[in-house]
Design brief:
There is one protein chain. By secondary structure, this protein is α/β, with parallel strands linked by helices. The chain has one domain: TIM Barrel (Alpha-Beta Barrel), CATH 3.20.20. The chain has 13 helices and 11 strands. The strands form 2 sheets. A 9-stranded mixed beta sheet has the order 6-5-4-3-2-1-8-9-10. It has a two-stranded antiparallel sheet with strand order 7-11. β8 and β9 form a beta hairpin. α1 packs parallel to α2 and α2 packs parallel to α3. The protein is globular and about 60 Å long. It starts with 5 loop residues before the first strand and ends in a 15-residue tail after the last helix.
């Protein structure tokens, strides 16, 4: 049986914020969500594959209200460590933060990951993150702040530590994650704004693909949780309603491209393409995901990989799935927001 280490449920792509660097291009105008029943089915499959952690991401998961609490409660009932990744729009003051977190804490929420960046600061000031972190700590929820940065960022771990210190708040765990130029960032982050490193630093197997699958709010099941996953059909291995998560994971285990990336590596895939064609990629990238996205969005590279037997689905299949991804957002169905949990 093929293992799942961490399951990400992108429960919605709707978000009150519209950050300039957002990979999945979340925003207030986005529609659709995973239903409670769909999330439950995926968690059942993941738990049967030895999964220990489920990450509820978006968009902004908190826009789902009671449905999110039901999802967290089910995760707890199956001994899954539940994590919510949030922009903390919902915590403009301490009392509001406590009201929003209390039902989630009672449902068993274990981890709150708060996203910060210059882009987040345009919509939700740092005080929101401080309020959310303090409320979470009072409820016994572990907090981590993920800071999306580029070389010219004003928002860094240092600036956030200083803000927490100035507010007299306990400084939580935090780390920086480099912005990669996909989604909205592709328009605003040219190479001059990126923190690039020699590509050979990223050689070797990808530790995420197949082990950290994502179920997107449009139903597509991707092999990992990379920020461009919603727009990358070669990483789709099924669709909720057509395949279960378990079936999609089994498809990944037999997919030549997924297995090459997972067991051999993306840098090695770059060398394979360049050694068999006139296609050339850069020798400097932000990280392994940046390189992977550059390859998997290159039509000529995909055509070559298909001719070499790496893509088990035809170009027509991929185009059809891309069209489904663009047009197939499911509206939130009112009855699913209060669906019972068996």
């Amino acid at each position: 049986m093929n293992e799942i280490a961490v399951l990400t449920l992108q429960v919605t792509n709707k978000c009150p914020l519209k950050c300039a660097h957002c990979g999945p291009e979340s925003g207030p105008d986005q529609r659709g969500s995973l239903s409670v029943a769909e999330a439950v089915s995926c968690m059942e499959d993941a738990r049967a594959r030895d999964c220990r952690v489920v990450n509820f991401s978006g968009g902004e998961p908190f826009v789902l209200g009671a449905a999110l609490t039901e999802m967290v409660a089910f995760a707890s009932s199956r001994s899954l460590v539940s994590r919510i990744t949030t922009g903390a729009y919902w915590s403009p003051n301490a009392d509001g933060a406590a009201r929003r977190l209390e039902p989630l804490a009672k449902a068993g929420l274990k981890q709150l990951f708060i996203s910060r960046s210059d882009g987040h600061n345009e919509f939700a000031p740092i005080q929101n993150a401080i309020n959310a972190a303090q409320a979470a700590r009072e409820f016994g929820i572990n907090v981590c702040i993920v800071v999306n940065t580029s070389p010219d960022s004003e928002t860094t771990c240092r600036s956030i530590r200083e803000a927490f210190d100035d507010a007299g708040a306990i400084i939580p765990l935090m780390f920086e994650s480099a912005i990669i130029p996909f989604g909205r960032a592709s328009e605003r982050w040219p190479a001059s704004r990126l923190e690039l490193s020699p590509v050979e630093q990223f050689a070797g197997p990808c530790p995420s693909l197949t082990l950290h699958p994502t179920v997107h709010s449009d139903g597509n099941i991707a092999g990992c949780a990379v920020v461009f996953g919603r727009q990358c059909a070669p990483l789709f291995f099924g669709r909720i309603g057509e395949q279960s998560l378990a079936e999609a994971v089994d498809i990944m285990s037999g997919d030549p491209l997924a297995q090459w990336i997972h067991k051999i590596g993306v840098v090695e895939l770059k060398h394979l393409i360049e050694n068999n064609s006139a296609i050339r990629f850069s020798d400097r990238y932000v990280n392994i995901c940046h390189l992977c996205g550059d390859i998997l969005h290159n039509a000529a590279a995909l055509e070559l990989l298909e001719s070499m037997g790496f893509l088990t689905r035809t170009a027509q299949d991929r185009k059809a799935q891309e069209k489904t991804q663009r047009n197939g957002e499911r509206l939130i169905r009112p009855e699913t927001l209060t669906a019972g949990i068996a």
